[in-house]
Amino acid sequence: MSESLYNGLSTIPIIASATNAFVLRTFFNQFLGGQTTEECLPKIEELRKNRIGTLLGYNIEAELDGSSKDPQLIATQTQHVLSSIDTQSMLAKKFWPDTSATGGDNRSWVRIKVTGLLPHPVALYNGSQAILKARAEKGLDKDVPHPGLPHDGDWEAALTGESVTKTDREQLVSLRATLEAIASKARDNNVRVVIDAEQTWYQPVVDSLTDELMQKYNTLDRPATCIASFQAYLRRYPQLLDQQIRRADEKGYKLLFKQVRGAYIVTEAERWKKEGREGLGPVWSTKAETDASFNYGIEKTLATVTDQVQNTGHSRLSGVFASHNSISVDLAIQLLEKHSLAKRTADGKLLLSKEAAGSIAFAQLYGMKDDLTNKITGTIETEGGFPLVVKSMSYGDLKECLPFLARRATENKAVLEGRGGAAAERIRLGREIRRRLLPWSS
C-alpha cells in the first residue's frame, strides 16, 4: 500500500480504522518491530532465543529532497534514540552480561540516521562542499572517486568554509552535540551505535563526524561504541576501507564498521547528471562491480582480522556484513574456514573461534531473508550461543513509518520480482502476510 493511498483512505471515517488495522497486521508487523520499544521486546527476545541479535532503530526517514523538519520533531526523535539505548542495555544485561570474551560486544545495538537529527539537511550539504574544497586545496584525494576519504581537518573545514552560513554552523555544532550525547550514553551502557551512511552530497560531514566519534569512543582500553557504515556501491569503497584500517592503526582506536551495498543508486545518478558533472559518477556502473567491491570488503576484513589475531591474540577490527546476497554470505563463510577463524566440528558445522566471535557479524533486515539468516545460524556456531547474525529492526508510529515501508518495497524490488533466487522469499512473505491477515487460513 502506497503512502498516498493510505493517507487518502485514512480521511474516510468508516474506512480509516480498517485501513490502520490492515496495515498494522500485515506490512507493518512483517517489517517493523512495533510502534514503541515495549512492543519490540517480544520480537527481540524471540530472535535471541534463536541466537540472533538486534540492531534497533527508531524510524527516522529524512526526506530525500533535503526539506526541513520541525526542530521539536528532532528533539522527539533524539529522545527515541536514547530510549532505544535504554532498551538494548536492559536486554544486553539479560542476554549477554559478560562481554569480556567477545571484545566488549553483546549484539544489542542501536541505529541512528544523521540526516534525521538536524532540522535543515542543507547544513550537511554546505559543510560537505566546504570539506571537498579544503581537500582540493590541500591536494588530497586526487585519485579517489567522489566523495573522497576522511582526513584530519575535515570537521574544522565544515565549520569555517566560505559556503557555510552562520545558521549552518549552528546546526552542525548542535548536531555534533546530539551525537556526542548519544555516543556517551551508549558507551556508559555498553551499547554499540551504528551510524548510517547517507547520500554522497551529505557524506563528507557524516564521514568526519563518524571519524571523530570513533577516535573518542572506540579507544583501545575499553569496549568500543561507534560503528561506521560503508557503502560498497560507491567506487571509493576499496580505497576507503584500506585507508580506514590504516587510520585506526595509526591513531590507536578500534575500527568498527557495517558494510552494505547501498540504498541511493537512483538518486545518486540523478543528482550527478542534474549538476552537470563530467566523468564517472560516485556509484559503480554495473552490479557486478558493486558485488566485487562488497566481496573485496569481506576478503580484506577477514584477512586483517586473521593477521591481528595471529599477531596479538585479538582483533582491533570488527566488520558487519549486511547483505541479502547469498553468494557474498557463502564467500564469507568459506573464508572464515580458510583463515582458520572457524573450524569444522564432528557434526559438520563450523565453530567460530573465540578470538573472532566479537569481530565478525552478518546482518539482514527484520522481516526479510529469514531463509538466509537461518542458513547462517544453521551453518556456523559460536561458543555459548553468541549471535553471529543481527537483524536490523525499525520501530515507530505507523504514519511515520510509511516512507520506510515504501522504501523497503523500492529497494527490494528484486525480491518482489523473484530474481536471484528470491522467489522462495516472496512466497514466504506472502504466506506470512496471509497468516496474519487471515489466521484461520493456516
Structure description:
This protein has 442 residues and is an alpha/beta fold. The protein has a single domain, classed as Alpha-Beta Barrel (TIM Barrel), CATH 3.20.20. Helices cover 54% and strands 12% of the residues. It has 17 helices and 11 strands. The chain has helices at 3-9, 13-31, 37-49, 71-95, 122-138, 154-160, 166-188, 203-217, 237-251, 265-274, 287-312, 326-338, 354-357, 370-379, 398-411, 413-417, 423-437, and strands at residues 52-58, 108-112, 193-195, 226-231, 255-260, 317-322, 342-344, 350-352, 360-365, 380-381, 389-395. Strands 1-2-3-4-5-6-9-11 form an 8-stranded parallel beta barrel, surrounded by 7 helices. Strands 7-8-10 form a 3-stranded mixed beta sheet. Helix 11 (287-312) runs parallel beside helix 12. The radius of gyration is 21 Å and the shape is globular. 46% of the residues are buried. The model is unreliable at 414-421 (pLDDT under 50). This is Proline dehydrogenase. Keywords: FAD, Flavoprotein, Oxidoreductase, Proline metabolism.
List the helices and strands and how they pair.
Elements: H1 3-9, H2 13-31, H3 37-49, E1 52-58, H4 71-95, E2 108-112, H5 122-138, H6 154-160, H7 166-188, E3 193-195, H8 203-217, E4 226-231, H9 237-251, E5 255-260, H10 265-274, H11 287-312, E6 317-322, H12 326-338, E7 342-344, E8 350-352, H13 354-357, E9 360-365, H14 370-379, E10 380-381, E11 389-395, H15 398-411, H16 413-417, H17 423-437
Parallel strand pairs: 1-2, 1-11, 2-3, 3-4, 4-5, 5-6, 6-9, 8-10, 9-11
Antiparallel strand pairs: 7-8
Helix pairs in contact: 2-17, 3-4, 4-7, 5-6, 5-7, 5-8, 9-11, 11-12
EC number: 1.5.5.2
Pfam families: Pro_dh
Domain Proline dehydrogenase: 41-415
